[in-house]
Amino acid sequence: MITEIHLAPLQGFTDAIFRQLFCKYYGGIDRCYTPFIRLEHGNFRVRDIRDIESPQDNLSPQILPGSASEFNVLVDKIESLGYTEIDINMGCPFPPVMAHGRGCALLNIPEKAIEILREARQRPAVRFSLKMRLGYADTTQWRQIIDAVNDTELTHVTVHARYGKQQYKGECDMEQFADFVAACRHKVIYNGDICTPADAEAVGNRFAIGGVMIGRGLLADLNLPRKIKGLEPCNIDCFRQLHAELVEQLTQRMDNDRQVVDRMKPYWEYLFPTVDHKMRKRIKKSNKMSEYSAAVAEILHQLKEEES
Ligand SMILES: Cc1cc2nc3c(=O)[nH]c(=O)nc-3n(C[C@H](O)[C@H](O)[C@H](O)COP(=O)(O)O)c2cc1C
Questions:
Q1: pTM over 0.85
Q2: Closest CA to 236 of 221, 251, 214
């Protein structure tokens, strides 16, 4: 039985506007995270700070430190904005992130990961959680840091049950994940390829976990958390409203419509996967808001017909 559902941080998708609209129109999630917040030449990026300026219930800003000193700069700032829960990223496999010794690179250099966890122990006012993979080069590297993980006060550890080199494809390693759950003294949240209520049920039945984190599966079916929890799914009009508000808020924030269209397109790589690929292609090809809106209206019309 799955108790908690966490919305995965997805850079470019789950920023404040999306998170707030998702909670308003769909809900069913117990915790969400910002996409990772990192330092760029020692400074914060404006958009990262903007993303955490408006408080949200059950939100953990996620940090991407590459060293103990970066960790402290990131935590100081986020704490000064009033947050008491912070998630530490040790899982991002993007080459530019890895090149700075951040994210999944920390699993390849366990002494650095251990140093950061040691630093977390010096900050008792903050409740930390950790999001990690099973390793970078293979799925056994977690074993090198598990003692430090257990020695640190953490609210939970989210494990994407792949290794970094796999990026987002290939099998999750359920055997290593089982060993991790057995070795970890904290609440463990499972992450990786939860796309249906049956997927969530299967991991809930098999492992002693505290819940699941869902990313791409949630974008493909915004009702997934509700379905997992046995709640009535929202209808397509909910999506229509969410989408309209998302576009409206992005339009207020961005310089021109073209930027809004470019920002919206990636969502359609995931949303409603059963929609005919020709209709999806129209979105991909649209350059103007009028083209984009017409393509979306057609998709929504089709989905509404299927619903009734
Ligand atoms: C486009 C994209 C952006 C992501 N951004 C982040 C991020 O900022 N922080 C993070 O911890 N994980 C990030 N992830 C990883 C997801 O949170 C999640 O661990 C991964 O997608 C596996 O879960 P899923 O199969 O439910 O999508 C990202 C993944 C994708 C595909």
A1: yes
A2: 221
